[in-house]
Design a protein that fits this description.
mainly beta, 45% strand
């Protein structure tokens, strides 16, 4: 993980993210989870694979990013 506009992630926050450089931003929430971050997309995303990059945005500002290590199938009710 690399943070640009925050020191570290210490609580859940709502942001936008991209998992493909040519895609539109996607609403998501990110939460600290041990030494990584758990990303929950507002809407299910297809073809998310370990090894892909994810970049987090707060509107136009880059918050940070990292490499996807695993895909968890969770849903928000």
């Amino acid at each position: 993980l690399n943070w640009m506009s925050i020191e570290k992630l210490d609580r859940k926050i709502n942001l936008q993210c991209k998992i493909r450089s040519s895609s539109e931003t996607i609403d998501c929430s990110i939460s600290p989870s041990n030494s990584s971050v758990e990303v929950i997309f507002k809407d299910p995303q297809l073809f998310v694979k370990p090894g892909q990059s994810v970049v987090f945005y707060n509107n136009e500002e880059v918050v940070g990013g990292g490499i996807i290590s695993e895909k968890l199938n969770k849903s928000i009710k």
